[in-house]
Design goal:
Layout lengths: L5 H11 L10 H9 L13 H15 L1
Length: about 60
C-alpha cells in the first residue's frame, strides 16, 4: 500500500484498531498507525494533511 491507497488503508485501520473512534484520532497517531500497517510500503515523507484527512474520512465512513 501507498499513501494514495486511501480506502485499503481505511479498511486495514478498521481491522487493526476496531475499538478506536476515528473521529478523535490525531494526525500524528494516524501517520504512525498507517506506517505500521502490514503491506504499507511508502516514504513517510510523502504524506500530508490532505492525505491524512482523506484517510480519516474514509475510516470514519468504514467504521459506520
Amino acid at each position: 500500500m501507498k499513501w494514495t491507497d486511501i480506502y485499503p488503508i481505511a479498511m486495514a485501520l478498521t481491522d487493526t484498531h476496531p475499538d478506536v473512534d476515528p473521529r478523535y484520532v490525531r494526525f500524528t497517531d494516524l501517520h504512525q498507525w498507517v506506517m505500521a500497517l502490514d503491506g504499507f510500503q511508502d516514504d513517510p515523507n510523502h504524506s500530508n494533511e490532505k492525505i491524512l484527512e482523506a484517510i480519516q474520512a474514509a475510516w470514519i465512513e468504514e467504521a459506520e
